[in-house]
Amino acid sequence: MNILYYDCFCGISGDMNLAAMLELGLPADHLKSELAKLNLTDRYTINITKASKHGIMGTQLDVLLASETDEHHTHRNLADIEKIINDSTLNDNIKKLAREMFTRLATAEAKVHGTTVEQIHFHEVGATDSIIDIVGAAIALDYLKPAQVLASTVQLGGGFVECAHGTIPIPAPATIELLYGAPTKTGLVPFETTTPTGAVILAHNVDVWTDTPQMTITKIGYGLGKRDLSVPNMLRVYLAETKSDIVPEKQYILETNIDDMNPELYSYVEEKLLSAGALDVFKTPIMVKKGRLAVKLSILVTPAKEAEITKIIWTQTSSIGIRKLAVEKIALKRSLEKIPTEYGELTIKRAYLDDVPIKYKAEYEECKLAAERCGMPISAIYDAVARAMDNNNADKS
User: Around Cβ 291, how many Cβ atoms within 10 Å?
Assistant: First the structure.
């Protein structure tokens, strides 16, 4: 399985990311021609050069704005940026990924500034160069097509930085909001090493955070930052192969014992937890001290969702204590596919081992709707899926 691994020993910015992607094989002409589809070429030029930091050669990418003055007075909101993306002739995958990253960025900015996603006006990150960085990241991922994206602990830097709102501490509030739950470090240098643009690229695309990836490296890219620091100011990204589709992912199990809550409430709490991003929720009947019957509520979460899930436990249950267990989860690679059946198109989830499909499962909610629509037992819908899969396998053989 091919993977992309971000080694963020000196952080990440949008231009450093694009420069590293060029070294990994993204053709400069392809990047420029795709970005031209945004119809912003009168606002910028892209300058790509080779340079070195502390004796290490890499690529530096600069987005040169046609008019700095105009950019400083251009405060786009999310709808403005989505219109630029939607009106382009970029492919649907790039558009979707770019819109999702900007929405994530807008959500973080809105929370920091105490407003709504619709009302937030981007300043630095709404400028043309940041649009180029984020849409460029989507173009790079669409071109390189890694099966998984991994990243190391992210160095954020330190000190203070000037922005449209004045002097703010490093990490910038939006940066740390985006990387909430991800492994980070600070203080390597008294400067900003991870920008909000770089943070959203990681936050939205990284599948696994690890400092010890098991991989066979096939290519290395160095994206250089502009500032000269006491350490190499660069982002190192690897293209690599893993022997298996199964890559360990760091997750947490949050557990709490509850003996004083109305059992009818568990269904509601479970729905809230799953809609907030919990990977799994399960309940175990237990007996606690003084012979009381209780329920052990267990929730599997990613580091990024831990804080949100914890808040739901505090506010929606009677719990006053939570246990946190670090676990490593391994899972087969999966894909969703539509298959035709006598009751209409239905979705199955396929699971792969070393890129070979080994099992599948029909999606319950779609089978339930089909059963209600057709007036059939749900078991008949599952049987129809099985027949369709048998016919499909027979055709392939």
Answer: 6
Contacts 24+ apart (CB under 8 A), 170-177: 172/196, 173/112, 174/105, 174/108, 174/109, 174/112, 174/125, 174/199, 175/199, 177/108, 177/111, 177/112
CB 363 within 8 A of CB 374: no
pTM of the model: 0.71
Total count of residues recorded for the chain: 397
In the predicted model, is pLDDT for residue 307 greater than 90?
A: no
pLDDT (tens digit per residue) in 84-130 = 999 999 999 999 999 999 999 988 888 888 888 877 777 655 688 99
Q: What is the pLDDT of residues 70-89, one digit of tens each?
A: 555 567 888 999 999 999 99
Tell me the C-alpha distance between 353 and 357, whole Å: 6
Q: Sign of dihedral through CA atoms 173, 209, 101, 40? A: positive
Three state DSSP letters for 170-233: CCCHHHHHHCCCCCEECCCCCCECCCHHHHHHHHHHCCEECCCCCCEEEEEEEEECCCCCCCCC
